[in-house]
Design brief:
CATH superfamily of the largest domain in chain B: P-loop containing nucleotide triphosphate hydrolases
Low-confidence stretches of chain A: none
Largest sheet of chain A: none
Low-confidence stretches of chain B: none
Structural class of chain A: mainly alpha
Number of strands of chain B: 14
Mean pLDDT of chain A: 88
Oligomer: heterodimer
Strand content of chain B: 25-35%
Number of domains of chain A: 1
Largest sheet of chain B: 6 strands, mixed
CATH topology of the largest domain in chain B: Rossmann fold
Number of helices of chain A: 11
Radius of gyration of chain A: 19 Å
Distance between the termini of chain B: 31 Å
Radius of gyration of chain B: 24 Å
CATH architecture of the largest domain in chain B: 3-Layer(aba) Sandwich
Strand content of chain A: under 5%
Structural class of chain B: alpha/beta
Largest interface: A-B, 25 and 29 residues
Order of helices and strands of chain B: EEEHEEHEHHHEHEHEEHEHEEHEH
C-alpha cells in the first residue's frame, strides 16, 4: 500500500513535470484567456445585458463559464497527450515499469487532472480577480470542485484514447466532443434561456460542464445567479462528485483491462 | 534442458499475433539464471516482440512465459519486479532532460531521492553522459539517446536485464563500455538477454545464442556449438611444398572424416567438423609425405551460422 502511494505520487509528478515543460503554451493560453475575459467578455456582456434589461450580470455568468470551458478543454487535452505517448512508444516504457496496472491508470488520471488544474490555475485567478472574489472558503471550494471535475474529464478522455486507438480518429472525436459539450451546456447560456429549446435543455441538464459552471456561479453569486442555475446547489455538487467518481472507477477498470490484455496495441 | 543450471526464463509454446500478423510462432526456450543470452535475428524476426512480452508489455496470444516461475499472463505485477528493459527505440519525453528522465526512473524502481541522485550520477559518468545531463532529449544525438536508454537498466540492476540492440548507433568506444557494463551486470547476478542483429555483438557478449527468424527459433547453443553444427564448417589450411598424390588425399579424407579436400598451388583445404581435433592427425599423416610450411584453421563466422540455420543473410 505504501509502495502504491509512492508510485502514485511519482506518476503525478511525471504529469506535472510534463505540463511544466510547456511554458510557452501556458503563457499563450493565459494571454488569450486574458483577452477573452478582459475584452470580449465585456463586449458580449454589454450586448446581452441590454437584452435582459440588466437583470442578469452576464459578465459574472460568462467569466465562470469561460473558466469551465478552458478547464474542460485542457483536461480533454490529456487524452491527446496520451495518444501522443502511444505514437512515441512512451506507453511501452510505462507498461514495463514495476507499477501495478491499476496504479498506473489511477496515477495517470490523477496526474493529468492535477496538471490540468495547475495549468488553468492562472486563468481561475484572473477570473477571481475580475470578479473581485476574495473569500478564501469560496476560492477553496471552487478549486476543489474544479479539481474533481477535471478528474472526471481526464478519465473520460484517456478512456476514449484507449477505446479509439487511432491518432486521426482521436483528433476528430475530441474535436466534436469539445465543440458539442461546450455548446450543449450552460457554460455560456443560462438554463432559463435553454428552456426555450427543450432538447438543448435536456442535453445540457446531463452535461457535466453545466454542473461545474453553475456550481461555480452558485459559490460566488448564490443570490444573483441562483435562478439561472440548471439544478439546485446540492444536486450540482453531488453530480460533479458522482461524475468524477464513476468516471474514475470505470476508466480505471477499462484502462487496466485494455492494458493487461494487450488491447492498447 | 538438462544442463543442470537453474532456469530463469521459460518460454513455452509462445505465440504472439497482431491481428493477422503472426510475430512469434510457437517459441520454446529456456534461459538460464545469470547467463548472458543473445537473441540473434534480423529486424522483424520476432525478437523484440519476445522481449517485450517477457517485460509484460505484451501478453502472449497463446502459450506462456515464466520469469523465475511467475507467469507473464497471470502474474505480470510480480514479473515486472524482476525485469528491466532497454528498448530498441529510446523512450523518453522529447522535452525532458537525461538527468530528470533517469532520476524519475530510479525513483520509480525504488531508490530514495539521495540514492537515486548518487546512482544516476555514477551510471551517467560511466556512460560518459554526465556532461549532457541538462540538454533536452530532443537535442541529443541518436547514440546519446541510446545510452540514456541503456542507463535505465544499469541503474535498475534488475534480476532480468533485457537489452534490445543496446549498441545500435554507438561508436566503438561506447560499444565496449556498454558491453563491459552488461558483463558486469551478469557477474553481479542478473540474467541478461541481448537482442541484436550484429554478429560480433552476439559473439562478444553471449554465452548462448538463439537464432530467431520469421518468428521461429532456428538454432540454439553456444557460439562454438552453433558453428560446430555446420557440416564441414571448419577449414584446415595446410601450405605444402610440392603436390599431394591422390591416394594420400583419399586416405586423409577418410581418416579425418572430411567433407571435401581442395588442393591447389601448394594449398590444401580440408573441410571438417571440429577442426581443432583434426589438426594433429592431419599433420601426422602428411609429415611423412610432404614438407609442411604452414598450418592454420578457419572457423565459420556467425554469419555462416545464421545462413546455415535460416537460409538467409542477416541483411535480408
Amino acid at each position: 500500500m505504501r509502495d502504491d502511494l509512492r508510485l502514485l505520487y511519482l506518476l503525478i509528478v511525471y504529469d506535472i513535470r510534463k505540463i511544466m515543460r510547456y511554458k510557452v503554451f501556458i503563457l499563450m493560453r493565459v494571454a488569450w484567456f486574458s483577452v477573452q475575459v478582459g475584452f470580449f467578455a465585456y463586449l458580449i456582456s454589454h450586448i446581452v445585458g441590454q437584452r435582459f434589461g440588466g437583470e442578469l450580470t452576464y459578465y459574472h455568468f460568462y467569466l465562470l463559464g469561460a473558466y469551465t470551458s478552458i478547464l474542460f478543454t485542457v483536461s480533454m487535452f490529456r487524452g491527446y497527450e496520451t495518444a501522443q505517448e502511444f505514437e512515441e512508444g512512451l506507453i511501452e516504457y510505462m507498461l514495463s515499469l514495476p507499477i501495478k496496472r491499476k496504479i498506473l491508470a489511477i496515477g495517470r488520471i490523477l496526474g493529468g487532472s492535477i496538471a490540468s488544474f495547475i495549468l488553468t490555475l492562472p486563468m481561475m485567478l484572473i477570473v477571481l480577480f475580475l470578479l473581485g472574489a476574495f473569500d478564501l472558503f469560496s476560492i477553496l471550494l471552487a478549486m476543489a470542485s474544479a479539481m474533481i471535475f477535471s478528474i472526471g474529464i481526464v478519465s473520460l478522455s484517456i478512456s476514449l484514447v484507449f477505446l479509439i486507438k487511432s491518432g486521426d480518429a482521436t483528433d476528430i472525436t475530441f474535436g466534436i466532443l469539445d465543440s458539442l459539450l461546450v455548446r450543449l451546456s450552460t457554460v455560456f447560456y443560462p438554463a432559463i434561456i435553454l428552456l426555450s429549446f427543450i432538447p438543448y435543455y435536456y442535453v445540457s441538464s446531463v452535461n457535466p460542464l453545466s454542473y461545474l459552471a453553475d456550481f461555480l456561479r452558485w459559490i460566488f453569486y448564490p443570490q444573483e445567479l441562483s435562478k439561472y442555475l440548471i439544478n439546485n446547489p446540492m444536486n450540482l455538487a453531488f453530480f460533479i462528485i458522482g461524475f468524477a467518481t464513476s468516471m474514475l472507477v470505470l476508466a480505471t477498470i477499462f484502462i487496466e483491462k485494455k492494458i493487461e490484455g494487450g488491447g492498447w496495441k | 534442458m538438462s544442463s543442470g543450471r537453474d532456469v530463469a526464463i521459460s518460454i513455452r509454446n509462445f505465440v504472439k499475433r497482431f491481428g493477422d500478423i503472426v510475430a512469434v510462432r510457437g517459441l520454446n526456450l529456456d534461459i538460464y539464471d545469470r547467463e548472458i543470452f543473445g537473441l540473434l535475428g534480423p529486424n522483424g524476426s520476432g525478437k523484440s516482440t519476445t522481449m517485450l512480452t517477457i517485460a509484460t508489455v505484451y501478453r502472449p496470444t497463446e502459450g506462456d512465459i515464466y520469469v523465475y516461475g511467475k507467469s507473464v499472463s497471470r502474474e505480470s505485477d510480480e514479473v515486472r519486479k524482476y525485469v528491466g528493459i532497454a528498448f530498441q527505440e529510446p523512450k523518453a519525453m522529447w522535452i525532458d532532460k537525461p538527468i530528470e528522465i533517469l532520476t524519475w526512473h530510479a525513483r520509480v524502481i525504488g531508490y530514495s531521492m539521495s540514492d537515486a541522485r548518487r546512482v544516476v550520477r555514477e551510471v551517467m559518468e560511466m556512460l560518459d553522459l554526465w556532461e549532457q545531463r541538462n540538454k533536452m532529449f530532443s537535442e541529443l544525438s541518436g547514440g546519446t539517446r541510446k545510452k540514456v536508454e541503456v542507463a535505465k537498466v544499469l541503474i535498475q540492476r534488475p534480476r532480468v536485464a533485457i537489452f534490445d540492440e543496446p549498441t545500435a548507433q554507438l561508436d566503438v568506444i561506447a560499444k565496449h563500455i556498454v558491453w563491459k557494463a552488461i558483463k558486469e551486470l551478469s557477474r553481479e547476478g542478473s540474467t541478461v538477454i541481448v537482442a541484436t542483429n550484429e554478429m560480433y555483438e552476439a559473439e562478444a557478449l553471449s554465452e548462448r545464442i538463439g537464432i530467431i527468424y520469421k518468428g521461429e527459433l532456428k538454432g540454439l547453443g553456444t557460439p562454438a556449438e552453433l558453428k560446430d553444427k555446420i557440416p564441414g564448417g571448419d577449414i584446415i589450411e595446410i601450405h605444402i611444398e610440392g603436390s599431394l598424390d591422390p591416394l594420400t588425399k583419399q586416405m586423409l579424407a577418410e581418416k579425418l572424416g572430411a567433407y571435401k579436400i581442395d588442393h591447389n598451388n601448394g594449398l590444401i583445404r580440408i573441410y571438417v567438423d571440429k577442426g581443432e581435433e583434426k589438426i594433429t592427425p592431419a599433420i601426422e599423416m602428411l609429415s611423412n609425405k610432404v614438407k609442411i610450411k604452414m598450418i592454420s584453421m578457419k572457423e565459420p563466422s556467425l554469419d555462416d551460422v545464421f545462413m546455415f540455420f535460416t537460409g538467409a543473410r542477416l541483411g535480408e
